[in-house]
């Protein structure tokens, strides 16, 4: 592998890639339970995150914990929460996506193949750039895992979740427990959670206007944001391609300069230098766009899916309630098991009402959270775009001056 | 420097500037002291007739170990290998060119005779002298010829002149120094207006017998008169260019036999290298501005063709008026190239090649599809034709060609006939074939001239690197177009997202973002056009031009081959004579002696021709290198300015968006 196992300290990562938090989720700053991932160990596809917890909550045995968790542990935690019926009325923080280093890895492979057609400098630059890209992906991965835990910790319900606490406290490998846990909760809600837009659309007639509106909004918004994410990814990739071209052009110019010994040489070298610097700016710009824009869209694509899942669970509850009504009617007609049907109908109604109530709250706060996050990220992206453009301007102005006075 | 102090240069991260601020001419000195050495005695292969070279299969030219040839140090000097044939040739060749400039400075020079080529007595003086000394205007005008960088040139030249030379004493001096302000100026040159001709003297590095001088014609600077009356050295030095010109005029060169076994070996004044002299060559001394505009489709269907308006603005007296316009079609441009290469290629001139014919592109235009690609094609060709003409007229010798003047001035041009055969791929193939053959011959020739040895390799390498760079830049053009397209698509998608957004402020911000991205898409598109027209096309031009340079090397090779063949023939004739003597056949002896005399004359003639073409090619390549450096610098600056403009626009767009983002609540 091109990328040896490496322990990444948060500090190191930040030094290497000057990026701030990419995704803002407007978490409340409650000091009673603070979680972060200060470092992570990367071995091939496996990433071991160090989860660090500081708490004043009495439910915890100690005020501070530091445990190692893998991506699969996060997924387990997410699954158990999804499967907990109690949380059906909440927007469950989206699970962090699986660490994906395929992009930079594949590029690295291609680079290795193309090594012979490049100069040493070009190759070194490409490799360096890919390593930076790899680190950026890595950092993003760490962040998105951290954000997942922080969203849980900042939620009044989830922060009390027993499995969450186990996840934070248990100082051994979770693997064994995970299997047991899976058996225990075996697909309680799981099957339903999987994509169910049709149910939402063709389902039972909506009685609550708020949810009717939310449903329409989320369905529409979900497809739009998915599309925007894909388009933003493409745009960012194009920026990267342009940056790569700048690199190759810089190399080719240096090649011509190397064979030259006339006045031409200086121009070529200067020009190669300009392209090299432009490459850096373009690369940074692409990375920042990726983090501020694409990653924001990506995150909210998932978050909106989580909100849709909530609507889906509510729609199921509504359908259950209507079914229980029908069953009660039938029972009354037949005069059989009426009390049991009444009890069932009552429970279904309770569940539906509870879901509706918490769902309304959750969706409202979700909207506020989303607006704040968009605001923050759009401002940061714009400021970075301006910064990079200004860098380019001064770089170009300087080079033009030098060339002209030559 | 004056220019850089005007605008305070922004802080630049790297510390490499000082180095770049140095005089850019340093490199040229690498050749200082190199003198053209004699060719080695005939190589074993020389018996082969020249034609064979072209019949040879073209295989593994590139597998040949050419690269080893280049390992010699740059400064290797004076590897004079006395030629068996003529000692004086050596002397003549490495002869001080300084003499020439002295001689030229004599007053007669400034009164050239009328052109012999039915040219009315209207261009007696060089434009240099007849021009008023408004140096900056002149400079600007000539700079326009090469592109749109005149502002830059204007901006930077005048202050330099002022600082360097506060006493603009005489008009010619002013013109001269101004023009040279960024060139190392030789002390003795500085205040000497007559040195304007030093450059022209350069055209005469190879001595020629005076006998051929009668038919010479002016190139605007030279006098024909003076050499008839002045000393032998003058004749020798000035002869050659005139002779070249004569050759251009005559369909078949009728080089007169070696009349005077040239005596200029006596002139031993300190010699300057061609490079040094080239340094002194005034840049852009002519005032000629050509533009190709208004492409217009004439006719319909497959008989349709594009006609272009060719406008010339000039103060050169060789033209009938100061501004004139003609309409020319593409095949006329190709026809011009054909005529020029027919006349000048054999003399070792770099004849700028026209853009290639494109059947696909033109068919689209003919069919009349109004799609952007065909508009782009037309614009691309228009720009290429303009650059082509500008390169032709910026060549001091080609400018003098009657066909060039006819092309620019004459209302109706006889329809070019054979351009079909010459079109695009055709002549490129021809060129490549020729250049491939050169590579082969170079090895066989066992190149003894270090300068050529290195230069041929350099050109080969440069062409290859240039091709690679061209591929990269084309890739950039494509990726930028792709980026533009992807930005447009993203803008649309964000606009849709904005319309779905139920928070009013965020919805507004998103649709504003969509507008910003739309504008950025436009920027990328414009930048892609700049990537292409300013950068990619420049490289495409120079790849073609390097092909032309290789063509010149090939011509030199051919001349060498002819000389070697003559040597071999002479050898055979001598053997025949020896046999006849042995066999005691006096009746045939006289004929054999005559033949020997005939071939001796030929050998001398061909050898001189080879030397002359070597000198011409060498001068041409040096000129080409200079032009190239200037051209690239100009274009690179223009290109960087286009990038700069893009970035400045970007800042504007994003700064306008920032309050929108902050207004999200």
TrEMBL record, chain A:
Residues covered by the PX domain: 27-174
Domain of life: Eukaryota
GO MF terms, alphabetically ordered: dynactin binding; phosphatidylinositol binding
Protein keywords: Protein transport, Transport
Keyword Lipoprotein included in the entry's annotation: no
PANTHER family for this protein: SORTING NEXIN FAMILY MEMBER (PTHR45850), SORTING NEXIN-5 (PTHR45850:SF5)
Task of the protein: Involved in several stages of intracellular trafficking.
Family to which the UniProt record says this protein belongs: Belongs to the sorting nexin family.
The protein's name in its UniProt record: Sorting nexin
Native species: Sinocyclocheilus grahami (Dianchi golden-line fish)
The encoding gene: snx5
UniProtKB/TrEMBL annotation, chain B:
Keywords noted in UniProt: Acetylation, Cell projection, Coiled coil, Endosome, Golgi apparatus, Membrane, Phosphoprotein, Protein transport, Transport
GO BP annotations, alphabetical order: early endosome to Golgi transport; protein transport
Compartments reported by the entry: Cell projection, Lamellipodium; Early endosome membrane; Golgi apparatus, trans-Golgi network membrane
Basic and acidic residues bias (residue ranges): 177-193, 241-251
Domain PX: 286-415
Topological category with respect to the lipid bilayer: Peripheral membrane protein
Record's compositionally biased regions (Acidic residues): 14-28, 276-285
Location of the region described as Disordered in the Swiss-Prot/TrEMBL record: 1-285
GO cellular component, one term: Golgi apparatus
Low complexity bias spans: 252-272
Family label: Belongs to the sorting nexin family.
Protein's UniProt name: Sorting nexin-1
Species this protein is from: Sinocyclocheilus grahami (Dianchi golden-line fish)
């Amino acid at each position: 592998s091109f990328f040896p196992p490496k322990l990444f300290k948060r500090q190191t990562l930040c030094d290497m890639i000057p990026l701030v938090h990419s995704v803002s989720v407007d978490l409340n700053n409650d000091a009673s339970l603070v979680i972060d991932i200060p470092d992570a160990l990367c071995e091939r596809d496996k990433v071991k995150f160090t989860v660090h917890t500081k708490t004043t909550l009495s439910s915890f045995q100690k005020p501070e914990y530091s445990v190692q968790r893998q991506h699969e542990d996060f997924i387990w935690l997410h699954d158990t929460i999804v499967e907990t019926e109690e949380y059906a009325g909440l927007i469950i923080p989206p699970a962090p996506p699986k660490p994906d280093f395929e992009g930079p890895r594949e590029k690295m492979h291609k680079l290795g193949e193309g090594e012979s057609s490049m100069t040493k400098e070009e190759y070194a630059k490409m490799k360096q750039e890919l390593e930076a890209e790899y680190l950026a992906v890595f950092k993003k991965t760490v962040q998105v895992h951290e954000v997942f835990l922080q969203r849980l910790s900042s939620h009044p319900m989830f922060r009390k979740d027993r499995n969450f606490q186990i996840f934070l406290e248990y100082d051994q490998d979770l693997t064994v427990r995970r299997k047991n846990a899976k058996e225990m909760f075996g697909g309680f809600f799981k099957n339903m959670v999987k994509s169910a837009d049709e149910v939402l659309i063709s389902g039972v007639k909506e009685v609550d206007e708020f949810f009717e509106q939310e449903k329409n909004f989320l369905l529409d918004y979900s497809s739009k944001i998915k599309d925007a994410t894909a388009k933003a990814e493409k745009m960012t990739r194009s920026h990267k391609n342009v940056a790569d071209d700048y690199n190759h052009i810089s190399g080719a110019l240096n090649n011509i300069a190397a064979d030259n010994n006339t006045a031409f040489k200086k121009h070529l070298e200067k020009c190669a230098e300009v392209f090299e610097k432009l490459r850096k700016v373009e690369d940074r710009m692409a990375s920042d766009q990726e983090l501020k824009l694409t990653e924001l869209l990506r995150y909210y694509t998932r978050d909106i899916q989580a909100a849709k899942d909530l609507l889906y669970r509510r729609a199921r509850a509504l359908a259950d309630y209507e079914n229980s009504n029908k069953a009660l009617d039938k029972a009354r007609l037949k005069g059989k098991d009426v009390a049991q049907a009444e009890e069932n109908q009552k429970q279904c109604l309770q569940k539906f009402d509870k879901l509706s109530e918490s769902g309304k709250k959750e969706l409202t706060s979700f909207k506020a959270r989303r607006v704040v996050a968009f605001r923050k990220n759009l401002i940061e992206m714009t400021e970075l775009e301006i910064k990079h453009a200004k860098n380019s301007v001064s770089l170009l102005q300087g080079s033009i001056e030098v060339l002209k006075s030559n | 420097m004056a220019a850089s102090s005007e605008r305070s240069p922004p802080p630049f991260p790297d510390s490499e500037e000082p180095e770049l601020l140095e005089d850019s001419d340093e490199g040229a000195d690498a050749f200082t002291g190199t003198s053209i050495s004699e060719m080695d005695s005939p190589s074993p292969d020389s018996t082969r007739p020249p034609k064979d070279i072209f019949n040879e299969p073209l295989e593994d030219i590139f597998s040949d170990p050419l690269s080893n040839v280049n390992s010699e140090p740059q400064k290797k000097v004076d590897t004079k290998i006395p030629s068996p044939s003529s000692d004086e040739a050596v002397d003549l060749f490495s002869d001080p060119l300084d003499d020439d400039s002295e001689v030229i400075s004599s007053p007669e020079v400034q009164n050239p005779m009328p052109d012999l080529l039915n040219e009315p007595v209207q261009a007696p003086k060089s434009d240099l002298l007849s021009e008023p000394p408004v140096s900056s205007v002149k400079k600007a005008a000539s700079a326009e010829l090469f592109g749109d960088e005149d502002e830059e040139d204007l901006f930077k030249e005048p202050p330099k002149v002022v600082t360097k030379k506060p006493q603009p004493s005489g008009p010619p001096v002013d013109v001269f120094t101004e023009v040279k302000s960024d060139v190392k100026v030789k002390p003795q040159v500085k205040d000497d207006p007559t040195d304007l001709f030093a450059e022209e003297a350069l055209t005469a590095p190879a001595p020629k017998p005076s006998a051929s001088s009668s038919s010479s014609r002016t190139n605007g600077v030279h006098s024909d008169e003076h050499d008839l009356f002045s000393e032998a050295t003058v004749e020798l030095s000035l002869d050659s260019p005139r002779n070249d010109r004569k050759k251009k005029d005559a369909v078949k060169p009728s080089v007169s036999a070696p009349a005077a076994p040239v005596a200029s070996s006596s002139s031993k004044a300190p010699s300057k290298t061609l490079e040094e002299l080239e340094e002194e060559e005034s840049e852009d001394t002519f005032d000629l501005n050509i533009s190709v505009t208004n492409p217009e489709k004439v006719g319909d269907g497959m008989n349709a063709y594009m006609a272009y308006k060719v406008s010339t603005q000039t103060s050169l007296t060789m033209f009938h008026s100061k501004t004139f316009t003609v309409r020319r079609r593409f095949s006329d441009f190709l026809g011009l190239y054909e005529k020029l290469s027919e006349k000048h290629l054999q003399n070792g001139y770099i004849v700028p090649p026209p853009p290639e014919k494109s059947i696909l592109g033109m068919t689209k235009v003919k069919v009349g599809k109004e799609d952007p690609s065909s508009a782009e094609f037309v614009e691309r060709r228009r720009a290429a034709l303009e650059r082509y003409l500008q390169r032709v007229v910026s060549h001091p010798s080609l400018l003098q060609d009657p066909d060039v003047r006819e092309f620019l001035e004459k209302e109706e041009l006889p329809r070019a006939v054979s351009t079909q055969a010459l079109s695009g791929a055709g002549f490129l193939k021809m060129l490549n074939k020729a250049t491939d053959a050169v590579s082969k011959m170079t090895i066989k020739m066992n190149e003894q001239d270090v300068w050529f040895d290195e230069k041929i390799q350099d050109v080969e390498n440069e062409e290859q690197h240039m091709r690679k760079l061209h591929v990269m830049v084309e890739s950039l053009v494509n990726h930028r177009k792709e980026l533009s397209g992807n930005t447009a698509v993203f803008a649309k998608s964000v606009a849709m997202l904005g319309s779905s957004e139920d928070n009013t402020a965020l919805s507004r911000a998103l649709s504003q973002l969509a507008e910003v991205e739309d504008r950025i898409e436009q920027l990328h598109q414009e930048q892609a056009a700049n990537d292409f027209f300013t950068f990619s096309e420049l490289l495409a031009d120079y790849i073609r031009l390097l092909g032309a340079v290789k063509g010149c090397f090939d011509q030199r090779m051919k001349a060498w081959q002819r000389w070697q063949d003559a040597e071999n023939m002479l050898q055979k004739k001598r053997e025949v004579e020896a046999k006849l003597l042995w066999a005691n056949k006096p009746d045939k002896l006289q004929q054999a002696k005559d033949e020997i005399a005939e071939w001796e004359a030929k050998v001398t003639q061909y050898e001189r021709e080879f030397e002359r073409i070597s000198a011409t090619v060498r001068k041409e390549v040096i000129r080409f290198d200079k032009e190239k450096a200037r051209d690239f610098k100009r274009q690179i600056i223009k290109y960087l300015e286009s990038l700069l403009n893009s970035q400045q626009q970007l800042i504007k767009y994003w700064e306008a968006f920032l309050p929108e983002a902050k207004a999200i609540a």
